[in-house]
Amino acid sequence: MRPDTPAETVDHTAEAARLERTAGLYPEDSEALLLRAAAHLELAGDRPTATALYDRLLSSTDGLENPHLVRALKASNLWEYGHEAEARAIIEGVRVASPRDPAPWVIVAEALESHDELEAAHDTFTEAVRLLLTDVPQPLQPTHPLLFGRHRVRRMLGKSHDEWDALADTVHSLPITLDELHDPKRVWSLGSENPAELEAEITRLRAELGAYREALSRPFPVAILHWPETELSELLEAYPTLASEYPSHETHLATIESALRELSSSGTPNLGIVTGTVPSYEAFAASELSSPGDATLLPQYATTLAARGRAVAWPPQQGAACWCGSGQTYGECHGGTV
Predict the structure, then answer these.
(1) Cα 151 to Cα 16: distance, rounded to the nearest angstrom
(2) Which of these, 212, 155, 162, lies nearest to 185 by C-alpha position?
(3) pLDDT tens across 253-273, in order?
(4) pLDDT at position 1, please?
(5) What is the per-residue pLDDT across 299-323, written as a single tens digit (0 to 9) for each?
(6) Whole-number Å distance between alpha carbons of 96 and 34
(7) Segment 60-79, tens digit of pLDDT
């Protein structure tokens, strides 16, 4: 997600350069790191250089994890500095591709919305909601911005509530209702001379800003290291001294779940899981001038993976796949154990 720290408190150009250097050191994470670098460049006002980073990713010979997200971000950025026609063409391409990830949909719909293309934004939000949420018993958190964005645009267009708006209301958790937050008349309150109206509007804006920052933030998690079964077998074959840390793969998985539950019950927030690979671990050990057989490196490796954005939040949301990779939902797998 894009950083939202004001330019006056962060040197966004320097941060972008640091992230580019880090991407060179960790090519397996270059997509996420370069996207963050491009976001900093946008905040610094250097939109052409940000576009160059998006183009660099899109022209990469290595497959991207989410090419639709990169294209959506590029389109949004292009439109902000005068390349409307190209931006529109890319947005249409994203819509035609119908990605299953909600993030590209949110970005292109909000780009349309921010340029007063409200009908097009509404159609884009609606198309995404129907694609991703039809017959879904409980919307997962990443899809909530689609519901909220659609609700917001519909309020601006003066449309009456429908079943998707009702669903948006059910997943909205702030004390101020969505109807209040998205009331088009709020803008008139900002010009009021009535202190009570101004105070009420400030309260609404604070709530909205809190939700926005919560959506953007990705707190640094307390991360537990997870090895897939094939990776663990390869690790122990190469470095048998680590067998005391991992008696078996089944025990390893059970230990992860119990450790996370214990941390959660003690009140530790922002828990996550990072998945290791043997080549990545060996490269990390070499960077630390140490042997991969040194068990004290394992928590440091986990922390490094988390710092590079590789952590997945624990516990998974209701209905989501289990973190262990079994293919079952979390509730059917490790989430169902005592």
Answers:
(1) 34
(2) 155
(3) 999 999 999 988 888 888 899
(4) 39
(5) 989 988 887 778 888 988 878 889 9
(6) 25
(7) 877 888 999 999 999 999 99
The answer on pLDDT for 218 being more than 50 is no
Q: Residue 321 in 3-state DSSP?
A: strand
pLDDT one-digit tens code per residue, 223-255: 899 999 999 999 999 999 999 999 999 999 999
Computed on alpha carbons and rounded to an integer, the radius of gyration of the chain in Å comes to 23
- 154: CB partners within 8 A, 6+ apart: 122, 161, 162, 165
pLDDT cut 70: percent of the chain above it: 88
Report the half-sphere exposure of 86 (CA within 13 A, side-chain side): 13
- Ramachandran angles phi, psi of 125, nearest 5°: -60, -45
For residues 111 and 69, what is the distance between their CA atoms, to the nearest angstrom?
13
The C-alpha angle with vertex 30 and arms to 249 and 216, in degrees rounded to 5, equals 85
Separation between Cα atoms, residue 191 and residue 117, nearest integer Å = 25
- Do residues 22 and 33 lie in contact, with contact meaning Cβ atoms separated by under 8 Å? yes
CA dist 82 and 84 (Å) reads: 6
Segment (H or E) for 118: helix 118-133
Tokens of 265: 């019950």
Strands 222-226 vs 312-313: parallel, antiparallel or unpaired: unpaired
Peptide bond into 27 cis (omega under 30): no
Contact by Cβ (8 Å): 216, 3: yes
- Write phi, then psi, for 17 (nearest 5 degrees): -65, -40
Q: Which residues have a Cβ under 8 Å from the Cβ of 243 and sit 6 or more positions away?
A: 236
pLDDT bracket for residue 216 (50, 70, 90): very low
Q: Which of 250, 274, 330 is nearest to 29 (CA)?
A: 274
